[in-house]
Design a protein that fits this description.
about 450 residues; three-stranded mixed β-sheet
Amino acid sequence: MKSILAVLAITCLAQAADEKDDLAHIVTLGTRPYYLVDEMTAGALKEKLEECAKTTTNFVKSDFSIGHRGACMQYPEHTIESYKAAALQGAGIIECDVTFTKDKELICRHAQCDLHTTTDVVLRPELNAKCSVPFSTGVSPKCCASDFTLSEIKSLCGKMDASGSIDGTPEEYVYGGTADWRTDLYQYSCPVIPTHKESIELIKSFDGKFTPELKSADVEMPYEGTYTQEDYAQQMIDEYIEAGVDPTSVWPQSFNTDDVLYWVKNTDFGGQAVALDEKYEATEEEYRAWHKLLKDSGVKIVAPPMWMLVKDDPNAELGMVPSAYADSAKEHGLQVLTWTLERTGPGLDGWYWQSVTDSVENLDPTQIDGHKFALLHVLSEEIGVLGVFSDWPATTTFYANCMGLGLRSETEDDVTAVDARSSAAGRRLKAVGRLVNIAFKLVGY
């Protein structure tokens, strides 16, 4: 009976999708959030999330949940497929990292020079030859967006960000190296690399909001002698203006403080401009001075990695508390976004967890992965972050729904979408979403 219900739910979803190619009203989280709740250490937070898991069948989008490069734990980053997955997992905000091509068109890539690990470019002899450093056996390639025109880049297929040995064949280089806790499952149908404009239209179609990151240029600026950093920063904003996107739906971000200050001083999109922080070794005096500079310059949001906001505390219920950095941001009146949940494999070791190693080491080994919810709880309840970037937004969407964080009201979505779909179709899709989530629970997930 349980299996029949699950099949029925999936069948209904397919039928609803056929009737309406717009899935903006669907939020379906799959099984992973429930798995992580099971992996949590016993306590009040686990009890609350367990109760939420048992009783919540209708999840909604949350602006607390930010799709980092889409849903790139499983889908090739910055592809149409990855963005769709993030939207369906309830990410209210989705990130396009913005860089430019040889012909100065904006596309979504994490870095200007990452095509050799995120696309199949080295398998295309005529395009591989145009790379800054072409692939050949024993040679590490370097292939940049600025090496190619937009039309050339649009001919490529996205893939998981990984690479095999340079001592093998081009195929072994392109399709080797994916971490064993990720997957290559979704890269074989030629995932589509979007332009920045295409990402805007796609995210709009899911009633999503936007957090584009202006990536640093790998080429010398001004590019070709005339294309300045300011031109680049303005071009990104202009594409939202052309698309009719309200500034309140956009969080433009950059690690370059000058970009952020440019948006604050010269555009209507500066009110939510985000100063990304990569000064990981800064002293308390240094980051306090930077926070003061941001505040005095009209910047309202700072975005460090998660580990900079927390520290170990064996006396705390969840083993961690806000850091001095978090205290400084609050004292300077800065709001906070942070990154990136679900970016590490099982075990929670490595760069993103470096400030809470004692907290993790003291856990039962069978309960380590569930500690992600403990971190989310400290970030949201004790620090008050606006949102969290995640490589698998379903995890953050689940937590946000259970805690009432950044949730989109159904009224808001209906009003926004009234010109894009019929209300009857929207109700059908929402009902199917509820049925899918119920079915997953009934089959034991």
